[in-house]
Amino acid sequence: MSGDKHISRIRFWLAIFIGGLLLSGITAFPLQSELSWLIGALRASPLQNPAQTLHLLPWLERVGAALADTNARYPFLAYGTDWLAFAHLVIAVAFLGPFLEPVRNKWVIQFGLIACASVLPLALIAGPIRGIPLPWRLIDCSFGVFGSIPLCLCLRSIHALERS
Fold this sequence. Notes:
single chain; mainly alpha; elongated
């Protein structure tokens, strides 16, 4: 494969990864309204029975009630998730380095892979301490697993560029 094809492949996968970070960041700001919309949509759709049976809807309703109560009584706590959202956006900007100069900024891809791998122990250790149900922790783990796929593909193409 030519160097240009490797660059194109890297940029394609990084665009997907950056898009995921941006989407995660942007959607972390309006948590209460998003969750209210999702609960309403599930209640009004054919997915209501499966969501109820799989305990997804009761869990989302519990989280929604906690968010509403917390935001009403302690709105300053939402500032923490605002910073979480902001961090996603800033990290997305960091991946512009390898998007523009992949070989020189290979370390950013390696950093991303370390971060993706770190999602698993965080979810599996902190999740039970915080009372997060196992299926939800596994969903959280999937972000690390699926996030690592485009980064591994980028790293493979970067190694090929280094060899050529």
